Amino acid sequence: MSATHLIYAMLTHRGRVRKGNEDTCAAAPEIGAFVVCDGMGGAAAGEVASNLAADTFLANLSSPRGGLEAASLTPEARMNAAIQAANHAVYQQSRQLRQYNGMGTTLVALLHTPVVQGRMARLHPLAVRRPVI
Fold first, then answer.
1. Distance from CA of residue 129 to its chain's centroid?
2. How many CB atoms lie within 10 A of CB 58?
3. Straight-line distance from the first to the last Cα atom of the chain, in angstroms, rounded to the nearest whole number
4. Helix, strand, coil percent values for the chain (each to nearest 5)
């Protein structure tokens, strides 16, 4: 099974306490990338932080900076670079506008990539959970 044949679904809910939903879930199944971001409730602009982090994360995985060198990175290195890019985007946005000061989100991601060993290929799921501030 390739990453493009995965069946997946996404749904978020605001929960019982908050009036708004600060969650974002997104996917780029063509590259095997899935992400859920949960804006920090009670902090400024959690929904903005979660949207920005998810979009930046997927954009970075879809077209990493560095060309061929970036394409040869391990899945772990690609995930780390995408998370760092998301963190940087959220941090920069929080510094540019006063109403976004202090915004943050968590980021949980899965990169489902084929790993070739000899003639056999197997899928290598890699998941990570990190706060993005």
1. 9
2. 20
3. 35
4. 40, 30, 30
Distance CA 98, CA 100 (A): 5
Q: Which amino acid is at 22?
A: E
Spatial separation of the C-alpha atoms in residues 10 and 8, rounded to whole Å = 7
Number of residues in the chain: 133
Amino acid symbol at 1: M
Concatenating the DSSP letter of every residue in 88-119 gives: HHHHHHHHH-GGGTT--EEEEEEEEEEEEETT
Per-residue model confidence as pLDDT tens digits over 90-117: 999 999 988 898 899 999 998 887 766 5
Residue 56 · residue 28 · CB < 8 Å: no
Token pair of 119, please? 């003639």
